[in-house]
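ok new one. same drill as before - structure tokens go in, u give me an amino acid for every spot. 190 of them this time. try not to just spam alanines like last time pls lmao
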């Protein structure tokens, strides 16, 4: 698996800001997502570069009407986050959020005369986030071309402390001390 942070498929930054944490995915082929956890709630932005809801299917490029219109003021700053903008256009094809005290998620619904895909790529983008260790192990087997121990994946998904045996089960080539130090820096028990 990739040992270089800029080559990683998934990333987590526990110090995105003074009050926010950021989880992200970039597949290296143009698809990505960001999840920002803040005191005000959670904001999720996904971008499927092949989606009919990609801003670059419009001329000139623009976010589809309705997709981000209802994002509440408490989370609105994330829509315009410079890290998610290319050439003055937010790279977004799916948007969802949940304010701190909300009881359910809200979704941006694009309105257009064009018949877009139904979910902006959400099904594919977020497919590994279902909480099932088998799902992630299958993804990793395909993407990294390695067989993973489902027990080791489950160990991490349950937040149990990381140790040398689990690290080696996930990546026999990883430097254990480096991984443990990085895990501690992220706030993961090691």
């Amino acid at each position: 698996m990739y040992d270089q942070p800029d080559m990683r498929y998934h990333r987590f930054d526990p110090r995105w800001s003074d009050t926010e944490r950021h989880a992200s995915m970039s597949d290296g082929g143009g698809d990505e997502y960001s999840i920002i956890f803040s005191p005000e709630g959670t904001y999720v932005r996904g971008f499927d570069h092949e989606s009919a809801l990609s801003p670059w299917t419009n001329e000139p490029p623009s976010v589809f009407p309705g997709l981000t219109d209802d994002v509440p003021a408490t989370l609105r700053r994330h829509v315009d986050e410079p890290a998610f903008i290319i050439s003055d256009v937010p790279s977004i094809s799916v948007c969802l959020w949940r304010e701190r005290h909300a009881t359910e998620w809200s979704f941006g619904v694009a309105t257009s005369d064009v018949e877009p895909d139904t979910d902006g790529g959400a099904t594919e983008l977020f497919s590994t986030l279902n909480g099932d260790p088998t799902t992630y192990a299958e993804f990793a087997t395909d993407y990294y071309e390695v067989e993973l121990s489902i027990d080791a994946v489950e160990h991490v998904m349950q937040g149990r402390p990381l140790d040398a045996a689990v690290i080696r089960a996930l990546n026999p080539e990883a430097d254990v001390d480096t991984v443990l130090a990085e895990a501690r820096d992220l706030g993961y028990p090691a």
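The first strand starts at residue 10 and ends at 13. and btw DSSP finds five helices and eight strands in the chain.
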